[in-house]
Amino acid sequence: MAIVKCAIDLGIADALHKNGGSMSLTELASSLKCPPSSLYRVMRFLAHRKIFKLSQTSQSTLIFAETPLSRRLLSQGKNSMAAFIQLECSPVMLAPWLCLNNRVQEKGVSAFDAANGEDVWSYASNNIAHSKLINDAMACDARVVVPRIIKEWPNLFDGVSTVVDVGGGDGTASSMLVEGFPWIQGINFDLPHVASEGLPCERVQHVGGNMFESIPKADVAFIMWVLHDWGDDECIQILKNCKEAIAKDKGKVIIVESVIEEDAKDKFEDARLMLDMVMLAHTTNGKERTFKEWSCLLNKAGFGHFDVNPIEAVQSVIVAYP
Ligand SMILES: C[S@@+](CC[C@H](N)C(=O)[O-])C[C@H]1O[C@@H](n2cnc3c(N)ncnc32)[C@H](O)[C@@H]1O
């Protein structure tokens, strides 16, 4: 991952993209203002990992070209994951990996706490630059996942007028939802220091608060990549508050999270299991959950039934009905 961050910091994907998609090693080195020898070693490794493509002309000139994967490293654009990689490679997020034993041995202190002295959300509220890194990283994921939800489940918000996005970050997901489902109004709900930095959007209202206390009322609650940050008891509390917030007649809670399949063969399972390790490193009690664990959690939170709707992503869309 650190080599990928190095590629982002150097602007390699951007340079190739601006040049029509490919460049010789000499051109790339001159454009990035670095000596060809070290750059070649980095590019040889990243080409081996299929992040860039390496070829040779008949005159033995080395040519590097972009790939669908390298376009995820562009600094801008709807498919860019650069901010996500910058977050995961920040010293604050890397340090807990070196204290992972604390969490595994259940020593009473999480890996994140052991490394940074407080839990991830307190740290973010006390360090606004880190909070922005988190928000930008989450927005990257939202830009990839929300369009897939809109495309693959176009009836998800039929008959719904208002949606509250619980732990919605900077409101990227809400603004995409109101655009994709133009009949809904959105409430982007997050901690006050996050909501106050919400992106302006005509049909989205940013509201600050604490989801463990209460959640603004709406027909439907949408909650993406939040429950995996928390342990079961905390999730039950959040889900009960979601249940309180939604309409009694047409209410539902739309949970966008991974569903781990113990013997899954799909291409996302490796990423789901890796994310579970990320939860181990970065949260106090968070985890990715199996179908059975989701079922147990939703049952305890008072939801009578639920459906799991797959999308072309690491996450599925779990729709829970009171
Ligand atoms: C992993 S991020 C997910 C952001 C967004 N849902 C997305 O997927 O792009 C978790 C979010 O939960 C928010 N959060 C943490 N504790 C919260 C609380 N007590 N009340 C409301 N939001 C909270 C964080 O500020 C953060 O924006």
Automatic annotation (TrEMBL):
GO molecular-function terms, A-Z: O-methyltransferase activity; protein dimerization activity
Key words, A-Z: Methyltransferase, S-adenosyl-L-methionine, Transferase
Classification via InterPro entries: COMT-like, COMT_C, COMT_dimerisation, SAM-dependent_MTases_sf, WH-like_DNA-bd_sf, WH_DNA-bd_sf
Active site: 228 (proton acceptor)
Pfam families: Dimerisation (PF08100), Methyltransf_2 (PF00891)
GO biological process, one term: methylation
Origin superkingdom: Eukaryota
Span of domain O-methyltransferase C-terminal: 97-303
Domain named O-methyltransferase dimerisation: residues: 3-75
Family membership noted in the UniProt record: Belongs to the class I-like SAM-binding methyltransferase superfamily. Cation-independent O-methyltransferase family.
Name under which the protein is recorded: Uncharacterized protein
Natural source organism: Chenopodium quinoa (Quinoa)
Taxon lineage: Eukaryota, Viridiplantae, Streptophyta, Embryophyta, Tracheophyta
Gene name as annotated: LOC110738778
